[in-house]
Amino acid sequence: MRTGPYLTVASAAKRSALTVQTVNASLDQLQRLGIVEEATGRRRGRVFVYRAYMDILSDGAGTNAARS
Predict the structure, then answer these.
(1) What is the CATH number of the domain that holds 43?
(2) Residue 48 belongs to some domain of the structure
């Protein structure tokens, strides 16, 4: 997830050469630990977000727009 804050199970499986089951289990564990969040609310085609990365990217985003 260092290359982008969004990740699907299928893309992670393809890029890592791991099985879909392994990726699902890993992402479920990361979700329980609060490292990633599932963003779609679906059971299939889920998209996971690396929340800390998104928080860093959005930190102060509104302040620059207000100054312009």
Answers:
(1) 1.10.10
(2) yes
Say if 65 falls within a structural domain. no
Q: 6, 53 in Cβ contact below 8 A?
A: no
C-alpha separations of 18 from 3, 46, 52 in Å: 18, 17, 24
Distances (CA, A) of 11 to 15, 20, 65: 6, 9, 34
What pTM was computed for the model? 0.70
Look at residue 66 and tell me if it is in a domain.
no
Task: Give per-residue pLDDT as tens, 5-64.
Answer: 788 999 999 999 999 999 999 999 999 999 899 999 888 889 999 876 666 666 766 555
If we measure between CA atoms, which residue out of 52, 42, 46 comes closest to residue 11? 46
